[in-house]
From TrEMBL:
Pfam families: FGGY_C, FGGY_N. This is FGGY-family carbohydrate kinase. One of its GO terms (molecular function) is kinase activity. It comes from Streptomyces luomodiensis. Residues 262-439 form the Carbohydrate kinase FGGY C-terminal domain. CDD domains: ASKHA_NBD_FGGY_RrXK-like. Belongs to the FGGY kinase family. Residues 6-246 form the Carbohydrate kinase FGGY N-terminal domain. It comes from the Bacteria. InterPro entries: ATPase_NBD, Carb_kinase_FGGY, Carb_kinase_FGGY_CS, FGGY_C, FGGY_Carb_Kinase, FGGY_N. The lineage of its organism: Bacteria, Bacillati, Actinomycetota, Actinomycetes, Kitasatosporales. PANTHER family: SUGAR KINASE (PTHR43095), XYLULOSE KINASE (PTHR43095:SF5).
Length: 492
């Protein structure tokens, strides 16, 4: 019999990615399928689950299975992950009833957030659920659905996230991992690690809640219909999966207390692992990936998406922008930027915040703007790390992962935070973590799958510049917040 292979697929905001990994951790095949996120109204972000989640998954899997050296019969297990927390309402048979409402970038439920916070009490919500109610929470979006789309709500019996829909389509099981559930505030009890039944019925009466499992736990096997749709062998084990950032943490082994992952992607995301519940009103307190573990999480609304906006605006390409920005000294020749171009999540929790560039002169160009954008996201990372420390989280090491993990961006973050970052051999991210989780569940040794191959140390000269700029960054938001809010409220 051939050596076992482990398949992982992640459904991202702008693309789906998959890998096939050997038992020794070597990636044998990769596949990527881009897709689009719908924005039917300002502040709304949606995915059509049939085409973006399920169709992408089947297409990626079939491409992987057709790759050279991959035999479908050798696939020993499947791991999945996806963006989240999301809300996909479905009927009793699991059929989607509308497009999925995405994670914290979707800000439609602001009224319901305020209403539930007043109704249940901010302190009690934080104490029981571990997080304040923000645009990241699923509970307010459930109430929004019941109030704003009553016909859809009348038929809603289940809800899915990207990973749990894939698990359902592959196995028929209605399961959700503990971590994803812990972001369904206020429906989950963080200390008890179970559904908060009384609040769940209060927020979403009649909704059937999925059975809970840990991300790396096998919850079923591929059934006949799924085997026909994907080409996977019938009977292949499938793990519960989780939200992409936590699969990313698994991909680089950042799962122990003191480990902090910095994920460079369309949005910047950070996770700080611990062995006890951690709470902070400006962060998300959740369960971790391993059974019984906990986590503090932070997420910025833009990072890579901001640099993409600049690329498109200037008609350039990333290679050119990066080369030009590398010739610009730290401080972007007097420019300072707030990266709140889509509002902001942690630690300000302000969906009405707006992007700001100050210090512009006629001598500035796209290179300075690009450098200022990288520095803005680096200052955002520093702001979130300070909140982690305030909450009592240990930050023993930073591990970088994602598309920007080996670039000027990483060097800027280390200089702005004063902290070195470990860079692993494989930075493909969540899909690799999915494969690692299912491999571990089936008994494979994944300890040496992804060794650290480089360390990005802070440049002390840059650090001195950023230490003077960071207080100005913090002050800029406070000084312009009311203007940003007024402009946001006046926009059509």
């Amino acid at each position: 019999m051939s050596d076992p292979l482990f398949l992982g697929v992640d459904i991202g905001t702008g693309s789906s990615k998959g890998v096939v990994v050997r038992a020794d951790g070597r990636v044998l095949a990769r596949a990527t399928r881009p897709h689009r996120t719908a924005t039917p109204r300002p502040g709304w972000f949606e995915h059509d689950a049939e085409t973006v989640w399920w169709a992408d998954f089947t297409a990626v899997v079939r491409e992987l299975l057709a790759a050279e050296g991959v035999a479908a019969r050798a696939v020993a297990g499947v791991g999945v992950s996806g963006i989240g927390p999301c809300l996909l309402p479905a009927d009793a048979a699991g059929r989607p009833l509308r497009p999925a409402i995405l994670y914290g970038v979707d800000t439609r439920a602001t009224a319901e957030i305020a209403e539930l916070t007043a109704e249940l009490g901010a302190a009690e919500i934080l104490a029981r659920g571990g997080s304040p109610l923000t645009s990241q929470a699923v509970g307010p979006k459930l109430r929004w659905l019941a109030r704003r789309e009553p016909e859809v709500w009348r038929r809603t019996r289940r809800f899915f996230m990207a990973s749990s829909l894939l698990v359902h389509r592959l196995t028929g099981e209605y399961r959700l991992d503990h971590h994803s559930a812990s972001q369904c505030d206020p429906l989950y009890d963080l200390d008890a690690r179970r559904w908060n039944e009384d609040w769940a019925q209060r927020v979403a009466p009649g909704l059937g809640l999925p059975e809970l499992a840990w991300p790396g736990e096998v919850v079923g096997t591929v059934h006949a219909a799924a085997a026909e749709a994907t080409g996977l062998p019938e009977g292949t084990p499938v793990t519960a999966g989780t939200i992409d950032a936590w699969a990313e943490a698994a991909s680089v082994g950042a799962l122990d207390p003191g480990d902090t992952m910095v994920m460079y992607g369309s949005t910047m995301f950070l996770t700080a692992m611990g062995d006890r519940p951690m709470r902070h009103p400006a962060l998300w307190g959740t369960t971790g990936v391993r059974p019984g573990s906990y986590c503090l999480a932070a997420g910025m609304a833009t990072s890579g998406s901001l640099t993409e906006w600049l690329r498109d605006l200037t008609g350039s390409d990333f290679a050119t922008l990066l080369a030009e920005a590398e010739r610009i000294p730290p401080g972007a020749r007097g420019l300072l930027m707030l990266p709140y171009f889509a509002g902001e999540r942690t630690p300000v929790f302000d969906p009405r915040a707006r992007g700001t560039v100050i210090g512009l002169t006629l001598h500035h160009g796209r290179a300075e703007l690009y450098r200022a954008a990288l520095e803005a996201t680096a200052f955002g990372v520093r702001h979130n790390l300070e909140a982690f420390a305030d909450a009592g989280a240990r930050i023993d090491r930073l591990v970088a992962v994602g598309g920007g993990a080996r670039s000027l961006w990483t060097a800027t973050v280390s200089a702005a935070t004063g902290r070195p970052q470990c860079v692993p051999a494989e930075t493909v991210g969540a899909s690799f973590g999915d494969a690692a989780l299912v491999a571990g569940a089936l008994g494979a040794d994944t300890e040496d799958w992804n060794p650290v191959v480089a360390t990005v140390a802070p440049d002390e000269e840059w650090r001195a510049v950023y230490d003077t700029r960071y207080p100005l960054y913090r002050e800029l938001y406070e000084a312009t917040r009311h203007i940003g809010h007024a402009l946001a409220d006046s926009a059509p």
